[in-house]
Design goal:
The structure is a homodimer of 216-residue chains.
Chain A (H helix, E strand, L loop, with lengths): L1 H27 L3 E7 L5 H12 L5 E7 L4 H9 L3 E5 L8 H11 L6 E5 L16 E7 L6 H4 L1 H5 L3 E5 L11 H11 L4 E4 L8 H12 L1
Parallel strand pairs in A: 1-4, 1-5, 2-3, 2-4, 5-6, 6-7
Amino acid sequence: MQRLINVQEDLLAKNRLLASRNSGYFDARSIMALNMMSSPGSGKTTLLERTIKALGEHKPVAVVEGDQQTLNDARRIEAAGAPAVQVNTGNACHLDAEMVLEAVKKLDPPPGTLLFIENVGNLICPSLFELGENYRVVMFSVTEGEDKPLKYPTMFARADLCIISKTDLLPYVTFDLAQAKDHALRINPGIQFVELSALTGEGLDGWIRWLQDRSS
Amino acid sequence: MQRLINVQEDLLAKNRLLASRNSGYFDARSIMALNMMSSPGSGKTTLLERTIKALGEHKPVAVVEGDQQTLNDARRIEAAGAPAVQVNTGNACHLDAEMVLEAVKKLDPPPGTLLFIENVGNLICPSLFELGENYRVVMFSVTEGEDKPLKYPTMFARADLCIISKTDLLPYVTFDLAQAKDHALRINPGIQFVELSALTGEGLDGWIRWLQDRSS
């Protein structure tokens, strides 16, 4: 066990250095980078498709897509009108700073780009690996239950924004929105919230406003 | 990268030995052990609550609960009428064979016990760590999208049974059941399926039958 912990600390320390380099790269190009994290299937890609359509004309957008396998998400993002690079992590359960810089260099984003890094669907491992991002966004859907912030505290403790997604399903599930927020605030008193349905577009304006307030 | 891979192989090899020991322990007590894996919030605990109520009188049932944090699930299982031991994995993203044997020894299950090991909610890491289980069950809900087997192939490639959950939400989501199964079969031609709603109980009989066919 001790050995596992030491190895993990070495890896995290190495990753932190590379994340710091990413941070310099983003700064040099006035890129605002967001690390988008969630469980599998919470609606990250659908939200990015809508975001690209809503913002695309006003601002350059680029996307790094992380998945264990498939090129599906990068294809969806490109069809929505933004350049994307897919990173397949194989047996790795998260994106690390090195993978992200390699992908960003392929994207070669112009100054002022809004860069979304869609992490592998996983509420644990991605929270440990910094990517040099400006903001961390955690998404969880109303179908997942209001206890998720308590069960996956590391993820929620380090997030700037919590997006509660799939609000169109609220009438059909037992999900206490106030309690879910209360749980997240218990872990992270400074966390902010946006509620939305990426499917219907309901609540999307709150998310776009949050982005615009930070990127202008 | 090479170093990371070697370290991971060492850990997996060590875990395989301990899993083999678990397998002997289960055999000695005629325990049938199931490794239950899924994304966070797919309904594993709710399904186990129902399963305990359906089977509890006919067969001893015990549960090992894995979560990054909280004792919530063990409490729910005990309230449903079965003994449970909660393992909090901290920053670890999966249960390993050693954690499971320690928990099982606390449970001290009588011969013939049906042992459910509810793994940490994560579609990647738990698939790499054998626990000495007799069967692997992966659950995914209709809200997560039919592409999950393709995106998380390691998990689906090694599962005996795929439970498609939250079927009560089918009328409200865009989920192609036939396509989801086709994706899983492409990864694992021998995988079996049960469709159910742990909330309403619809389809539960298929799951109970699957268990009874294997435990008798």
